[in-house]
Amino acid sequence: MNSAFYSGPVFAMARQQFVDVSDYLEIQPDERDRLLYPKRAIAVSCPIHRDNGETAVFQGFRVQHHLTLGPTKGGTRFSPTLEIGEVAALAVWMSWKCALAGLPYGGAKGGVAVDPFALSRREMEALSRRYMQEMIPFVGSHIDVMAPDMGTNEQVMAWFMDTYSMYKGSTVNEIVTGKPVFAGGTAGRREATGRGVVHLIGRAMEHLRIEPAGATAIVQGFGNVGAVAAACLVERGVRVTGISDHTIAYFDPKGFDVAAAQAHVAETGVLRGFADYAAIDPQQLLCQRCDVLIPAAVECVITEDNAARLECRILAEAANGPTTPGADKIIAESGTDIFVIPDILCNAGGVIVSYFEWVQGLQRVFWDEAEVVERLYRVLDRSFEQVIRRAERDCVTNRNSALAIGVDKVRAAKASRGLFP
Ligand code: NAD
Asked: Which CATH superfamily is domain 9-187 in?
C-alpha cells in the first residue's frame, strides 16, 4: 500500500521508525502494511457560534489504528497546525505504547485544528461538545475511548463525557479518561504522565549511577506533563535549570522555583513574565549542559541540526515524537552515551492510569491514589526492564527495543486471530 492520504513530516517519522524496527524484526513486506496503516480515519467539520456572533467552522479528526487487542484508546489534541498525518502518527505510536505496557487497547488519536489559546471558555466548551457530538457514531466505552492531550484538559473531558451521556440518556463515565476526580475520574490521572516520566528517570539514573541530589534538568513545555515532571524532579532533589513554553524559554544554572512558576502559569496562563531576566533562545535551551533533558511539548524538536550539540546524559522523551530518525542516528553513532528513554515508554504513565480509570469506571469501584501510583510504577518498572534487557541482548537502541516489543505483541495477536473473512 502506498498511501498518499497519510502524509506530512510526523507520519513520515512514525513510518521510518516502523521500517527500521521491521527490518530488525525481519517482518516480511506483505505484513508491514497491515501493521502500519490505520484501520479508520474520521474527518468532521465542527461549527460553533463565536462570542462576536459569527459562525466559525473547525476541522476535527479521529484516527483508530488497530482493533486487534481491544478498543482503541488515545488523546485529543487542540492545535492550530493539526493535520491528519500527525494524528495518524500519534495513533500508531499509541498502539506500540499500549502493547509495550501490556494494555488491552489499540491506539487512537484525535483532535481539532484550532488554537485553544484564541478561544474563550464558552467557545472552548461549544467546540468540545460539538466535536464529541460529531464523534458519537464512531466511539464507545468498548469501541474507542478518548483522553486529554496537548491543548485539552480535565474540563474538556468532563464536557465530552457529559455530551455523550446526554445523548445516551444516562451517565457513561468510562467513555473518556482524564476526567476530574469529582466527575468519575481516577485519583492520580492528572499527575500520571509527569510522575511516570520522573519515575523512569529515577530508574535510568540508578542504571547510570547518577545521584538525583545535585543533578540538573531542563524541561521544554510547561503544561500538564512538563510542569508535573518538573515538580516531581524537585521532590527528588534535582535542580531544574531550564523551563519553557510556547511563549518563552528560561535558563538559569542556579535553578528555578518550580512551584512559583506553576503558580504564575495558573494565574496568567503562560510562563512569560515569570523570570524574564533568564530568557534564552528556545533552540539554545535544548543544547545547555544538564543531566536530564525532557522535551515535553511538540514533535520534531531534536533534529539533525541540534542532535550533535546535546549536552545531557539522559534524554527523557515526555512528548510524543520529539526526536527525528535522523537525530536518533546521530545520537546512536556519536558515542556521546546519551541514554534515551523513548517516548512510548517514557510517557506511558498517562495511558496506564487512563486504563486504570477505565477499569474503575466500568466496575464502579474506585482505588485510592497510593494504589494507583503503586500499580503504575509496577507496570513502568516491568516495561523499563524489558526494554533495557532487549536493547543489551540485541545491541539495538532503546527506541528500537521498545518499538520491537510493542510491534511484536500486535503482530502476534494479529497472526493468532487470522485474517477475516
Ligand atoms: P499541554 O497542552 O498541557 O502543555 C503543552 C505545553 O507545551 C504548554 O506549556 C505549551 O505552551 C508548550 N509548548 C507548545 N508548543 C511549544 C513549543 N514549540 N516550544 C516550547 N513549548 C511549547 O500538553 P501536555 O498534555 O502536557 O502534552 C505535552 C506532550 O506530552 C505532548 O507531546 C503530548 O502528546 C504528550 N503526552 C501527554 C500526555 C498527557 O497525559 N497529557 C500523555 C502522554 C504524552
From this structure: Leucine Dehydrogenase, chain A, domain 1 (3.40.50.10860)
